[in-house]
Amino acid sequence: MTFAPAPRPGSAGPPPPRPQRPLWHWLLLGGAGMALLLVALIVALILLWQILGRGDPETTLDDFYDSLQTSDCALFEETTTPEYRDATGLTSCDVFEQATSDMTGVDYEVTDRVNRFGYAIFYVTERYEDRGETIEVPLRYFVERSSGQWGLAGIEPVDENSPDLITGS
After folding, report:
1. Where are the domains of the chain?
2. Which residues lie below 8 Å from residue 91, measured CB to CB, with a gap of 6+?
3. What are the φ and ψ backbone dihedral angles of 71, each rounded to 5 degrees?
4. 32-49: per-residue pLDDT in tens?
5. Which of 104, 101, 103 has its CA nearest to residue 93?
6. Rounded to an integer, what distance in angstroms lies between the CA atom of residue 150 and that of residue 60?
7. What angle do CA 88, 94, 98 make, to 5 degrees?
8. Which of 152, 103, 151 is nearest to 130 (CA)?
9. Rounded to whole angstroms, how far apart are CA atoms 14 and 9?
10. What is the pLDDT of residues 159-168, one digit of tens each?
11. CATH code for 57-157?
């Protein structure tokens, strides 16, 4: 005769439930996840602000001419580099306003633009009236990017008889 094995104590019925994690574990993991998402959002916003706030060097050139025509010293300082202001002697608002108070009727046309890493070169034909005669002056403007802002760094006349040092033509 065969006998069935004797039942083992505790083996009858379903297995005991697993112990659940305490609530503070879930709160800690959720808080860490939210902090990580917040940091990622802040980094994304900073990058977006940097990309959208880059500005345009041609807008800087337009603002420069506006500052000359309206004698707006704050706009002039915003659109030029300190080195340019030192080189031209327009180092204070009083000097700038005195130098630009008689300036009227200056018109300009951007004829070419060369982009380089960190700066742009604009070829401009400037027109103004002098004793009833229209004068055209070809100029080269150097606009550089510094500290996230575009600023006018230099102006030089273009000699049409000499080769262009920038483009080689």
Report:
1. 23-53, 57-157
2. 85
3. 55, 40
4. 999 999 999 999 998 887
5. 101
6. 6
7. 75
8. 103
9. 13
10. 877 666 655 5
11. 3.10.450.50
d(CA 58, CA 145): 12
Q: How far is CA 113 from CA 78, 126, 140, in A?
A: 21, 15, 10
3-class secondary-structure state, position 8: coil
CB 150 within 8 A of CB 137: no
Paired residues of 75 in beta bridges: none
- Per-residue tokens: 78: 């915003």
| Cβ count within 10 A of residue 42 | 10
**Closest of 85, 74, 73, 78 to residue 60, by C-alpha:** 78
Cα dihedral 63, 64, 69, 72, rounded to 10, equals 80
State pLDDT tens for residues 98-128: 888 776 677 889 988 888 888 899 999 998 8
CA distance 73 to 83: 16
The residues facing 149 across adjacent strands are 146
Task: List the alpha helices (DSSP H) in 71-157.
Answer: 73-79, 82-88, 93-100
Q: How far apart are CA 40 and CA 34, in angstroms?
A: 10
- Structure token pair of residue 3: 């006998």
* Coil, strand or helix at 20: coil
